[in-house]
Write a structure and sequence with these properties.
By secondary structure, this protein is mainly β. It contains no helices and 22 strands. Strands 1, 2, 3, 5, 7, 8, 10, 11, 13, 15, 18, 21 and 22 form a 13-stranded mixed beta sheet that branches. It has a seven-stranded parallel beta sheet with strand order 4-6-9-12-14-16-19, with no helix packed on it. The chain starts with a strand and ends in a 32-residue tail after the last strand.
Length: 320
């Protein structure tokens, strides 16, 4: 490991304890921390500094609270995520820009509640419920549409396999431009012979949204493969997405569809679609419930609206 001064004739080699390489930029005191091997840090590490993730997985444990950074660049198949089951999820405030290059992602797939866990946890092969109802389940949806902050729930176990884990939680404030050329994902886990996990939550505020990548909170697929006749592997319900922005040239896709599921011997039990809430500053919000190619059912128990969600369309949303 070494540190290098960009734009300087001097190159210093420094032994690092951490599995990251440190790039010290000549722009004031800001130091860009570049991670090149799989690493876990806490949200209190490197406050106010630029973060670069190159070709590895950076896990940020936000148990201590919100992480504050200058900017974030994810490139060369890099992944930014949080530990499984962490209730705070990936909770970040970025002062300037966040850039997710093609092939890279902010990815909290399967990082929610474990199989059968969570408020919408499935049983007996049912899909997990969150923003959409799990296949075969009668549990009510949960979480907040305008500012989702819940982990996805796990799918139901069977005699042959454990249910899929729910998707995790991304809540991120970006002071500058969020460029999504890769993807932002909070998918429930897909499993065989059991119920799929429900999608997680994605809550983002940014000044500018751009790129043509994807923002997904799908439910995981379940299946009844090798199960006795009549038993099910239900699809997980979709999660919840909410994105607030001042301006946008984003041309990608936001979806929170449910997962596919099946009944042994014939039939399907897909998960219901979750919610996609979009708010352009100065305009009325839009709410979309779109199953795409998966025609599951969503039982709409209206979630409680948080007191801090803005009613004034001119008001910027609060930091998540």
């Amino acid at each position: 490991m070494h540190a290098r001064f960009i734009g300087s004739a001097k190159v210093s080699i420094i032994a690092l304890i951490l599995s990251a390489s440190l790039l010290l930029f000549a722009s004031g005191s800001a130091r860009a921390i570049e991670f090149t091997t799989d690493t876990t840090i806490h949200s209190t590490d490197y406050p106010g500094q630029p973060i670069i993730v190159t070709g590895c997985t950076l896990t940020i444990d936000c148990t201590p609270g919100e992480g504050f950074y200058d900017s974030t660049l994810i490139r060369s198949s890099g992944v930014l995520t949080h530990p499984a089951g962490n209730a705070n999820g990936l909770w970040l405030s970025i002062a300037n820009d966040v850039t997710i290059n093609v092939g890279s992602s902010i990815n909290v797939n399967g990082k929610g509640h474990p199989g059968q866990g969570g408020p919408g946890g499935g049983a007996s092969g049912m899909g997990g419920t969150h923003g959409g109802t799990g296949g075969g389940s009668d549990k009510a949806t949960y979480g907040q549409i305008p500012i989702p902050t819940s982990l996805g729930s796990g799918g139901g176990d069977t005699s042959l396999a454990g249910g899929g884990a729910g998707g995790g939680l991304i809540r991120m404030h970006v002071g500058g431009t969020l460029t999504v050329s890769g993807s932002i994902q909070a998918l429930g886990s897909t499993v065989t012979s059991a119920g799929g996990g429900s999608g997680g939550s994605i809550a983002i505020t940014c000044a500018t949204l751009t790129g043509s990548g994807s923002i997904y909170a799908y439910g995981g697929n379940g299946s009844s493969t090798s199960l006795p006749a009549g038993e099910i592997g239900g699809g997980g319900g979709g999660g919840r997405i909410a994105v607030y922005y001042d301006t946008s040239t984003y041309s990608g896709t936001m979806l929170a569809r449910g997962g596919t599921g099946s009944v042994s011997g014939g039939g399907s039990v897909p998960g219901g679609a979750g919610t996609v809430y979009r708010k352009l500053t100065g305009s009325a919000p839009t709410l979309r419930i779109n199953g795409d190619t998966v025609t599951g059912t969503t039982l709409m128990d209206a979630p409680a609206r948080p007191a801090r969600c803005p009613d004034d369309p001119q008001q910027r949303p609060p930091r998540l």
